Automatic annotation (TrEMBL):
Top-level taxon in the UniProt lineage: Bacteria
Signal sequence, start to end: none
Listed GO biological process terms: guanosine tetraphosphate metabolic process
The protein, known as: RelA/SpoT domain-containing protein
Segments traversing the membrane: none
Cross-referenced SUPFAM superfamilies: Nucleotidyltransferase (SSF81301)
Domain RelA/SpoT: 32-159
Length: 293
C-alpha cells in the first residue's frame, strides 16, 4: 500500500527545496508537478523502444522547477541541492559562442529514502526510475521557456521551414539573458553608490540581494561602520556566494537579518575584532559549536 501519492511526494520535495533556499535568504519561486498515468503512457508511445527496464528509464515523473531572481545564484543552488540530495545526473548545455539557443540545466536526484516507495508502483509500467528532476532557471528565462514549450516544442510542425523565425525566438531569450546580467550589475552599482554615501542598510540590501527578515541595521553596527569605513569596504567586497554556502553548512537555521549577515560575513571571511565584539553571545556560541575541533 502506498502511503504517499506522487503529487504529495512532489509537494513535499518542493517544500524541502524551498526550506533549503529560504535558509540562505535567496529570492526565488518553486513550481512542481507529477506526471499522470496518461502522460507517462504518451511519453512511452511517442518513443517506442526508448524506455525499458534494464535500459533507459523515465526520470522526470516528478519534476521541480526553480526560478531564481538572479543568474549568479544558479551555480550556488546547484551546490546547495547536491549537498542535500543524492545527485544521479546533471545535464548542462555548454554555451556556443557561434550560435544561440535555449540551454538546459537539469538535475536528477534519487527519491529521498524517507518516502520508502518505488515510483513504478504508481504507474502501469516498469520504465520508471525512482528519481525526480530539478530544472534550474531564472525568472525571466522561465517566462520564455513557458511560451516556447507550449507553442514551439509541442508544435514542431508549425515551425518547419521557418528557421529564421525560430532563430528570432531564440534571440528573445538572448536579450533576456543579457538583461538579467545587466540587472545584477545595476544592483552592484547601486550598492557601491550607497557605500560611498555611508548608507549601510541600502548597501547591504543591494550587495547581498536577499530576502532579509526586517530591513534595518542596528544602531551599534551603523555607528561602527561610520567610524570604520575600511570594515564597510570589506563588507562591500565580501564573497557573497562563499558566505551563503557557509551559512548553509550550519546545523542551526540562522535568521537572515542585516545584523546577522554582517556578523556572519565577519566570522567567516573578514575577522574584524571590533565587529566580533558586537556579535550576540548566542550567535557566537552557535557558530563556535559548528566549527570543527
Amino acid at each position: 500500500m502506498n502511503l504517499y501519492s506522487t503529487s504529495s511526494i512532489a509537494k513535499s520535495i518542493a517544500q524541502e527545496i524551498e526550506s533549503i533556499l529560504y535558509g540562505v535568504g535567496l529570492l526565488f519561486r518553486v513550481f512542481y508537478r507529477s506526471k499522470q498515468n496518461k502522460s507517462v503512457a504518451d511519453k512511452i508511445s511517442r518513443n517506442p523502444g526508448k524506455y525499458s527496464k534494464g535500459k533507459k528509464l523515465i526520470q522526470d515523473v516528478i519534476g521541480i522547477r526553480i526560478a531564481l531572481y538572479f543568474p549568479d545564484d544558479v551555480d550556488l543552488v546547484v551546490t546547495l541541492l547536491k549537498s542535500h540530495f543524492n545527485n544521479i545526473e546533471i545535464v548542462k548545455d555548454a554555451p556556443d559562442v557561434f550560435s544561440f539557443g535555449p540551454s538546459r540545466l537539469n538535475m536528477v536526484f534519487s527519491i529521498p529514502t524517507e518516502y520508502d516507495t518505488s515510483l513504478s508502483n504508481y504507474y502501469n509500467t516498469d520504465c520508471i526510475d525512482n528519481t525526480f528532476e530539478v530544472q534550474v532557471r531564472t525568472i525571466l528565462s522561465e517566462g520564455w521557456h513557458e511560451v516556447e514549450h507550449d507553442l514551439r516544442y509541442k508544435c514542431k510542425n508549425d515551425w518547419e521551414s521557418f528557421d529564421n523565425l525560430s532563430r528570432m525566438l531564440n534571440g528573445v531569450l538572448a536579450s533576456l539573458e543579457t538583461s538579467e546580467w545587466t540587472m545584477v550589475k545595476i544592483f552592484e552599482s547601486l550598492a557601491w553608490q550607497h557605500y560611498k554615501l555611508k548608507q549601510w542598510e541600502s548597501m547591504l540590501r543591494n550587495k547581498f540581494r536577499l530576502n532579509f527578515q526586517g530591513s534595518h541595521l542596528s544602531e551599534e553596527l551603523i555607528n561602527l561602520l561610520n567610524t570604520k569605513q575600511e570594515l564597510a569596504k570589506q563588507l562591500f567586497r565580501s564573497n557573497r556566494q562563499f558566505v551563503l554556502l557557509k551559512i548553509h553548512a550550519q546545523t542551526h537555521n540562522l535568521p537572515i537579518t542585516m545584523d546577522n549577515i554582517c556578523h556572519l560575513t565577519n566570522f567567516f571571511e573578514i575577522f574584524s575584532e571590533e565587529l566580533m565584539e558586537l556579535m550576540p553571545d548566542a550567535l557566537h556560541r552557535l557558530l563556535l559549536g559548528n566549527e570543527a575541533p
